[in-house]
Amino acid sequence: MKKLFFIRHGKATHEPMPDEKRFLTEKGIKRSRKYAKKLKKAGIKPDLILSSPAVRARQTAEIFAEILDYPKDKIILKKNFYFEPEELVLNEILSLPPEADTVFLVGHNPLWTDLADYYSNDEIWHLRTSGVAGIGFDTDDWTEIETAPRKDLILLN
Hints:
The protein has four helices and six strands. It has a six-stranded mixed beta sheet with strand order 3-2-4-1-5-6, with helices on both faces. By secondary structure, it is of the alpha/beta class. Helix 1 packs parallel to helix 2. The chain has helices spanning 26-41, 55-67, 86-94, 111-119; strands spanning 2-8, 48-51, 76-77, 102-107, 132-137, 150-156. It has a single domain (2-132), classed as Phosphoglycerate mutase-like (Rossmann fold), CATH 3.40.50. 39% of the residues are buried. The radius of gyration is 14 Å and the shape is globular.
């Protein structure tokens, strides 16, 4: 089974600065830690974490990595996770390495809500900051997830 976890970055500052440099607020850090601990308690651990290079997304990925004992230096930053067209992210998903069964994708709305809703059996109207939507696919091949039976695993919102 392949498992995808869409994680929206934590709440970020609105101080005047370039968007990609916005960093997490204390609330964003706290909620990201809370949700990462819930995943740990549920026995969920990533084989791979991919993140937008924006500071707030990278910080969120690092919080999840720390709590779930994933090496921070193994987080892969993906430029196309930062407000690029949906098809680029879908191509990333379909080309995930076969040895990675549980993958965390850390990025931004509205695309993360749209992707979580697209793959989920339930309607996900809005993935809030630090929100996590996990979906399982009954396949051993990432290229088959579009047609594979799927199961909603967790929604932390």
